[in-house]
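Table S7 (text form). Paired inputs.
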Amino acid sequence: MSLSRILLRKTLSRRSLSLVQARSVSTIQETVAKLVPEWREDIKDLRTQHGDKVLCEVTVDQAIGGMRGIKSMITETSLLDPEEGIRFRGYSIPECQKLLPSAPGGHEPLPEALFWLLLTGQIPSVDECRQLTADLKSRSKLSLKTKEMINSFPKNMHPMTQLCSAVLAMQTESKFADAYMKGTISKSDYWKLVLEDSLDLVAKLPEAAAMIYRNAFKGGVLIEPDDSLDWGANYAHMLGYTDPDFLELMRLYLTIHTDHEGGNASAHATHLVGSTLSDPYLSFCGGMTALAGPLHGLANQEVLRWLVKFKSDLGSKPVTHESITEACWATLKSGNVIPGFGHAVLRKTDPRYMCQREFALKHMPKDEMFQLVSTLYEVVPGVLQETGKVKNPWPNVDAHSGVLLQYYGFKEAEYYTVLFGVSRALGVLASLVIDRVLGLPLERPKSMTTQWIRKEFE
């Protein structure tokens, strides 16, 4: 039996048992506090038992080539398997869709439920998830100075620049930074105020991000939050979207983009800045400046732009395997790439792509852009394999998300990375809390010059 099936059976058994023996409802702070001694003992034992073991050897190619494949970080929230894809605390995306609490009448997991899982390693009960949602609502109000700053941004400022600036504006409210500067907190308790800051930031991000969207694209007409809605649905509401299917899409989107191991640029940057004991606001801002790069978070809008142009270039030709194959070869022979396919780690179709495809098959099967994406999914891997130059020809998460958003009228592709950033906050901030629980030190790898390498090996 596969590992995923074993995990699913064990989890279902645990959940079935919880229906019979109702566990007491704890806050997320109480749940983490109970786990801290166990986690600290585990990391201590790991170093005692295996501290001198070799994780991997590093080649010159890896040092020059973006450190790909170098095993050198601890990230507890997720693990990316080249064949299976991402697992959040051991759970695959389909398992999370089945096991995590959803909104009343909905089917997709609540993002705050995944935040609980990432932070604690436990599937939350419905009541625990509701309590977390209520806690986030109680923390969500933006200060007047933050609102004034967002409203003063130039209209031509990129939405990601606005998001980073807004987060920095909130930094004056950091409880960790205040206590650290006053010397009123011990190292063993750092995690408590890092968690408080993280909850505050996660709570405030939707309104800040929605203000940025409404100012940039909707004439500055803002929409007040709706306290009856969950975290993801309320974000969609403040953006200006009320279609129940779109609310479900937002819950799915905000869930699957949360975390992707610790080595990706936004997660690593957040971890690196956090290792200096910068507070969660500064650390998260570091991660968001990385996410804003064309090779990271901007990839989804680049894919959408390519799809629109690709469709336009097809003209009146019908979307068939033959026409798409011909057009793909023309693209490659012209010296261009087909974006949205391939991944630095994955060697199979990204499961985040597949769950979006399943959503589209359910809600928008006849949409022209989806049909194009679906045909590309069937054609492009074969074309790329035929070139003999591509290790992973399968679609990644960016190949689909833009088309789903466009279908519901969310056409401002320049803003899509902000959606990504709001989601990614759940993963990188959960990791930041765990970093402080484990007492992980300042990150300081050794660098070399190319001349040093030559002297070493020649």
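Next pair, protein 2 of 2.
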Amino acid sequence: MSSDETKSGNRTLGLKKDDYEILVMAGCAIGLSILYNLLQESMFTSDAKKYTALITMMTSLVYAVLAFFEFRHELKSERGHGHSHSTPKDGLPPVSRGVLANMKGTAFDYARLGTLTAAGMYFTNWSLQYLNYTLRVLFKASKILPTVLIAVAFYKKKFTISEYMNILVLVASIVLFSYGDAVGKGKTSNATFDVRGILLITVGVIADALTSNFEGEHLFKVRKASHSEVMMAASLFGSMYMLIIMIVSGQAGDAFSYTIDNPSLVAKVVISCSAGYFSITFILKIIQRAGAVSAEIVKSVRRVVSIVLSFVIYSKPFLSWHLIGSIFFLLFIYNTFQAKAARSKAKAAAARKQPIDLEEIGKESK
């Protein structure tokens, strides 16, 4: 390596090595997310959509297994660095004490969280018997609305007028898309719309919002649990709840018979959920390496690309209402990005003006 290359900080085409790594992670996050959405839509445009509890159970199981291995890896890494996940009384290293002994949350915590996560997933999947998958993507983005309302009502958090206005922009986008789907209903085999789907996915989104607040305010801030621990335990409880629902409702036999007759369903669930899980992992890595603003850009790109591909691949009618709704959705994404950038600049400016006080930062985050 020449001295000029060394002085330039190992730059190629004006980019540092770290920049290339972040770009690779961003590409992986977007690509995996697209794979997840395409496979999910493939399932919910087939006969498999009738087996909502079965798909929800299998999805939860895949997430639980992946999170278990990630949690184990974290414990091994912490042992290698000479510190433990918790402060054990027996003095044993984390992995030697077992996964359960290193969990920060309680069984009651995860029984409650599992109820919320399973409800969010179940009602969202159920809604796809009546709605287009594209509308699901938009509704999942609208989780911010009940999340904000819950944060204000129960946790006394404050938000700016511009943040409330941006939520209204997103709501307008969803209303326009919903109306477009209602008008285009029946024009193609994939053009579906029923108000029952709106009610079901609304319940799912509210459950997702309760999940986010409970995770953030209790498990992450109070219990200091890791993302992998929370995902592992909540998904395990969720899968058990879905199995109970199938048994009690008498759907278990029919559901498992369908699985045996259609093994491709299992493959789609495993591949799509693995893609979705690792996409989230890359997003978290980007937040660590490049900050929330860069991660927000990546999340926005994957949403837009997923929506575009959904219309193209599944030949759904794209009406003027969808176009106007798309403009509002892009405006929502732009406003979200600007708000994230403003917060990051404000934090950076505050950090330059005064010495870092870790204890004070911890208080502010609460």
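The CA atoms of residues 142 and 171 lie 7 Å apart.
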